[in-house]
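fyi for ur records
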Amino acid sequence: MFHDRRSLRHDTRFEAEKRSSPLRFDVHIEGALREPGQTKVDVVLENLSRSGFRCDYSTSMNAGDKVWVAFAGLTSVEAVLSRHEDGKCGFSFVQPLNPAVMDHIVSQYRKA
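which gave:
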């Protein structure tokens, strides 16, 4: 899919990314996120792909910083902060989710 760069300038990075990734799903998954050396914090994953997720999370972390996230009955999964903007954070999984695991999670938690 082609997007004129000028039309993306007015979108947030999250909106542009969501449009450009057909394998990204809107979900509502309660989880817990933990920064190294910190206690876990409850979060809600709003958007999920095999490669990462988005959630509301206020942080002073920098892009590339690591976290651990647990959700949907999975053991903690390592991720890195990709971006944060206005209280929304995008994280990339260090190892992509297995396709079968992803399919199961989406079937259980996808927003209608």
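Residues 1-11 have pLDDT under 50 and may be disordered. thats all i got for now
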